[in-house]
Please model this.
Amino acid sequence: MNPYDILDAIGHADDHLLVNARKKPIARPRLFLSLAAAAACLGLVAGVFTLGGRKPQLHQVDFPEVEYATSPGIHHTSGNLMEGITAEVISESADLTDGREALTDFALDLFLEAQQAEENTLLSPLSVLCALGMTANGAEEETLAELEAIFGMDRDTLNLYLHTYLQSLPQGEAYKLKLANSIWFRDDPNLAVGRDFLQKNANFYDATLYQVPFNAKTLGDINNWVSQKTGGMIPAILDEIPERAVMYLINALAFEADWEEAFPLEEIKPGAFITLSGDRQTVDMMTSTENRYLNDGNARGFIKYFKDQSYAFVALLPNEGMTPADYLATLDGKALSNLLANPTEEKVEVFLPRFQVAYEADLIDALHKMGVERLFDQENANLSSLGQSKENLFASRVIHKTFFAIGETGARAGAATAVEIKEAEGIIEHEAIFFNRPFVYMLIDTQTNLPFFIGSAMSME
Model:
């Protein structure tokens, strides 16, 4: 049997119940937060999920080199930059400890503003950062200042940090974290795209550039690019290309890894996951004994490594009476970084549902709440370094789609983010942890403990 076929029976796992091992484990309704960590990507997965539902089919991710014929006379290959733009070597590197807390703050803030009560939420802050980072290279004045405020650093610092971080991500036979960026802009004599903008994004984000007619063929090409770069986990990012759209800045990432120690197949038993509203959902409950215990006074949880310990999965079960949102609101970048860096060597009996979740959202409302307004204002946005057109340019959508699946042999996750640019309209205790209620989970890299996915599992259906 293909090990990834087993990863299939996942549902939506949200709740972890922590019980002292000296007491009889009791299944109580609770919400849990889980984090999965990988050492190759600056991303955070945040989600609230409900458990139960169909068992997913998981397959290994392939990342073939794909060619796109985008228009008569123009042939693009996924590894080629636009003629005249060649990525320059960046000899400087960033200290990855310097910006860790600021970018973890960004991840937590974005999740708190994007989540919906009692609904599964799953974000990849890393994917969003890459798409917004590329966009920031075309912004000026107040539009740029608002973006830098949510980044917690100026754009040049972010560019170098993400470039260094992405270059440092480990790859191996049993684990992969792949990330790609691209910029697609309309082949239109009235659109003059800034060459410095394109050069920066080629240099720091290794962005592939496509100048193409915005038609049905290009819609298919963009969706095919995203599907290929996410191993099919995100089959499409766009449902249409609106008439006034002139550019898409897109990030895609895919992660898959095998556990260092798999959950024993014979220990998987039927169990119940209990939502915040009290509904009981049937799940396949995986069981294992872990030895990296987390407890910050508001939640208990554990860290489970993937092979070679470059990446890890983290699950946190809030105390009784706290929802995942309540718990995440108690954290900031420093607190979360300290928690993940200091697990206790203590045995923990873990009961975790197999689950998977797919999520999508337009992040404009969440970014508005974080303080980004000018970027989405068709009259006042300043994207003058990005390019010039007959009308003012502004961001009309920030489309974000994610996928996450976890099972006894490992985990997979995919994400894609597209910023759509438009022209304006004419104007020692042995603990037992039962993740049988809503919980928070993340994928993190073990070098910086930055979460590249963060999710809350509210339901398994």
